[in-house]
Amino acid sequence: MSGRIRASDVEAIKTRTNIQDVVGEYVQLKQSGSGSLVGLSPFKDERTPSFYVRPALGVYHCFSTSQGGDVIDFLQKMENISFTEAVERLAARIGYEIVYEENAKDQAERGQRSRLLEANKLAESFYKMQLLTPEAKHGREFLISRGFDSAAAAQFGVGYAPDSFDALRKHLVAKGFKLEELITAGLVVASDRGGYDRFRNRLVWPIRDLTGQTLGFGARKLVETDNGPKYLNTPDTPIYHKNRVLYGIDLARKSIGSNRQVVVVEGYTDVMAAHLAGVDTAVATCGTAFGSEHVTLIRRVMGDTAKSAGEVIFTFDPDMAGKQAAIRAFAEESRFAAETYVAVAEDGLDPADLRQQKGDDAIRAMIENKKPMVEFMIRSTIEGFNLDTVEGQYGALRQSAPLLRSIRDSALRPEYVRKLAGWLGLDPKVVQREVESASEASSKARDPRNISTEENTTSAEMLPKVSLKELEPLERSVLQSLIQQPAVISSDLVTRIAIIELRNPTVNELKDHLVVQYFEAVESLTSATWLSKITTSLDQQKRELVQQLAAYPLPIDEKVSEDQIRRYCTGVLKALIERDMVSIKARLLAALQRAEVGSEEYRQIQHNLMTLEQERRELVER
Prior knowledge:
Radius of gyration: 31 Å
Distance between the termini: 58 Å
Largest sheet: 5 strands, antiparallel
Mean pLDDT: 84
CATH class of the largest domain: Mainly Alpha
Low-confidence stretches: 103-110, 439-466
Oligomer: single chain
Strand order of the largest sheet: 2-3-4-5-6
Number of helices: 27
Structural class: alpha+beta
Helix content: 40-55%
CATH architecture of the largest domain: Orthogonal Bundle
């Protein structure tokens, strides 16, 4: 791979790539207005969707962070890759063959990210092949003992790391990788002997991102003589961060979005068991506690907003480690707009054991019998007290009261006060007083209604300065129509608004620019390159404003016909023209008052008024 990518190839790739499909792999999108899609920002944690995509124009804009651009820019930001890498990845996606310009400098080796991804991809293939070897018999037997056949292993990409000092290292070096790259990828551990394989004599699960690219691995030991931990994971690398990944998210992504549900289990085999039992929204953390970045990832995939009715279900082991995991998960619970639940099998089995012992129906029943997380936490809290004593009762009450205070839906609190009173054997009034006196600061910290003003506003109110927020509504609608739907607007209306002086000088300059571009591109107004054309010669401020106007949806139903879109766009242009006519009329009437009656000036002003009125009637009748 050498040379510079031709501009024509870049434009062709952008035109042929559906930005909705690419963005949809990272963000759960919904229709919002004519030709617009909206979702939660992938760049920050938010509750109100502010991220808009315009598939017809091939652009996106995030109003909460002021970031926007085309599909190449989006992929660069999401994957932290170079422009060239993004273009090449999109080209591969649509099967487009890039022709590199001759006589350009040879490009450097592929970016580090591409190399690490390729190394992980080849390692995954290597591990899967090793699972089929005689040496891996005990690995296959382990899977079978857990209820997973060869088809299940293939479905989840399970492999085997051979009991060898450097089998993988030698394999990848033979493929052209340097030792330093393999160490950086976390596949090899540096040593005086040149490095040894991180995973040896273990079953291996690939950990992938939303798009299915393998970022790292989780490995389970198979023999007691292995002195390492039960599960060993890839360390943090330039492409793998354990706090930002969830095992199974690539397989569960579509179901999470469509079912508005995610089930968080504790291990790789639990994910396998859940999916095979029909609970295909299951994911698991990878060697770390559930945290805020996991919340962000799930909310983005699920499209978790204040208006949604989704559910997040956690499964925990009944032992102390499971309870600690529940406490950590509860600390993040208020970050979700969705309702949160806990599902635990009656006999305390994890999903993998439950499926093996009682079948698929038992897993589905466990999920169906979920309990609200706050109830689970209250019950778990009071279990630690001797409720046969007064001291135990009041100790449990003091520990439980802040939990009740943290319940998001205040309408539910009285019912939980009644339940807690019954569990503790206390008067409900006593429990209520304790709840009311619980730390106000704790309540505010956990109540999502107390999120920042920025997060609690509508997307329109979240717009940055020097943006749509500063535009007069009618002028904004006119500019939107010219940018988003130029082909449905008649040239005579565009000619008429060319003479209108808008109130904001910057906005007026932008309007004039759009008018000029409209008539220069009159034969190709429906082209996907329209947006590129109108932004090419603009300064940074106006370019950002155009990107926002392109992404912000027109206030009409997404299912309207082209004729209805035409009527809307025509209507806003006519409204601007009519407003200008009213202003002109006011000036003419003021001049008429100053002119001498019967004078040539007086008659000319009267003529102008009649002409203006005729134009107004014709405009209304259009």
